[in-house]
Amino acid sequence: MIDDTVPRSTITEDQNTGDIVLPTGTCYLTRHSNLKQVHTVFHLVSTLSEIQNEISSRDLLLIGLKSALKIAAENNIDNVIVPLFLTHILDSKMDHSWCVKRAE
User: Fold this and answer.
1) pLDDT tens profile 20-48
2) Which residues fall within 8 angstroms of residue 98, CB to CB, at 6 or more apart?
3) In the chain, which ranges are continuous DSSP H helix?
4) Which residue stretches of the chain have pLDDT < 50?
5) What confidence score (pLDDT) does residue 25 get?
């Protein structure tokens, strides 16, 4: 399921692989029956460079996160785990000052 805030015209197909290419900030869901204590996973689309840059209040990543939380609330999903800095890796560029600024 792809959130309905994404215009269908922005979803493209990779010419080489045929894979669907989603724009930054797109939130999509996958359901799982083989993961212990996890039944639904929200995926937020971005690139590594977008994750490392500053995030403003109108950033597509935050709009996508808002969409994911809205979908979770509408579907009675009680527990949501969000990575603290909206990233799953720590890079050398992500020093103390970057972390403090991102936490704002």
Assistant:
1) 888 888 888 888 888 888 888 888 888 77
2) none
3) 48-52, 60-74, 96-103
4) none
5) 83
By the 8 A CB rule, do 44 and 65 touch? Answer: yes
Separation CA 19–CA 93 (nearest Å):
31
Spatial neighbors of 86 by CB under 8 A, at least 6 apart, are 44, 51, 55, 61, 65, 102
Q: Residue 84's pLDDT is what? A: 74
Residues 6+ apart with CB under 8 A from 24: 45, 46, 47, 50, 60, 61, 64
- Of the candidates 8, 31, 30, 3, the one whose C-alpha atom is nearest the C-alpha of residue 20 is 8
Check if the beta carbon of residue 55 is closer than 8 Å to that of residue 62. yes
Please report which helix (H) or strand (E) contains residue 21, including its range: strand 20-21
Q: Which one, of 64, 63, 70, 101, lies nearest residue 85 by Cα? A: 101
